Amino acid sequence: MCLKFPASNMKIFLRNGHAYADKLMVNVATPRTSLNGMVDILEYYEDIYDGVIIDPESLPSNTTAFSAALRSSLSYWKLKGKKGVWLKILLDKVDLVPIAIKESFVYHHTEPHYVMLTYWIPEGPCMLPAGASHQIGVGGFVINENGEVLVVKERKCPLSCSGIWKLPTGLIDKSEEIFSGAIREVKEETGWMPLHEFMEQPFYKEDQMMKRVLDATRDLSWAIS
To answer: What range(s) does the Nudix hydrolase domain occupy (predicted)?
Structure first.
């Protein structure tokens, strides 16, 4: 069978599970696929969602070569029925970003050492997951047999809660489990206070959400006693 790329006039010949482009063989069964020679296709991996992850280390530095290879690659992946395309561009090749944007790639997220762009091939809304945009906070409620609760005072906090004793809280570290993060935040601070003193602080009496929490802790305190 012969497949012809409209954009580049490149012909792909499929025979015995292999693809031939201008008589150059490509093993399409392996995770990484590349075409070298007259017309290049970017090296990539296939994910389990019929998507494509372009190998960032193999991207050409030359913008002209990258532009031609990207167009050919998109045509090839469309013929293969691929869906989402993930393109990570490292800082040493940031000149390639405008080329990808011109080919309708969109920004997904950035990190200090790279930019991630995506391209959705099928018609209709993009089904790729959005980039992470939130941080996860945790807090710990620790009470002993004497009805004392573990509390802390923040050194730096908004003026409205300055000097207030509070439960130990913090943000989850990158790739940290929520349970482990809660334990870590509790261990980082110390101080014990009777529960009734903690609940009598005016700051918490005026906060309706905290009031519900404190009502629950009061019930817990009675159960312990």
So the answer is: 133-225
